[in-house]
Fold this protein.
Amino acid sequence: MNEVLLVLIAYLIGSIPTALIIGKSVFGIDIREYGSGNMGATNSFRVMGPKYGTLILILDLLKGLLAVGMFYFLPYYLNNEYERTNFMIALGLAAVVGHIFPVFAEFKGGKGVATLLGMMIGVQPTVAICCISVFIVVLYLTRYVSLSSILGAVMLPVSVLWIWNEHELSYRVFALAVAVLVIVTHQKNISRLIKGNENRVPILKNRDRKKNKE
């Protein structure tokens, strides 16, 4: 019963519409009416700029991290690594579902990548660092957040199944499911990437200007 309550709370944490709140309180806009209409960090970067886009990214990440950390409320999980990992995954996934289908925003949220990342930092920091590294490198080279997110997510099962060769079945299934989920939720982005009309985020512009002058 306590587990069910915490999973529900994790979902509610994930449902906090940070982009919607900041958009309305700072800019007086509904982020869902601009850009792609998505409440994730990518659209926030495009519509509200790097400063607030970064803030929203961090807040969405913290939702996943906070949700995963709630296992501390149940002492049983402190000394049982296998059960703890499974419960942390359940809490994190509840937060991700909340971000994608937020009860506080008519069940229309973001794509859950930042919240997934926060979840992974809480569950397995080393694997999360690998995913973050791939994300940063791809973003620096391309300025496509969507492509960075997809490749960062694909790095998760690569890390879990081959680099660290984790043996827990639930962890392996989770890693594969995350990669599939991110790819599925980015279908429109993938289509735009193939067509060459995907939007780039407004960062690293000075680098691009220098390249164009050379």
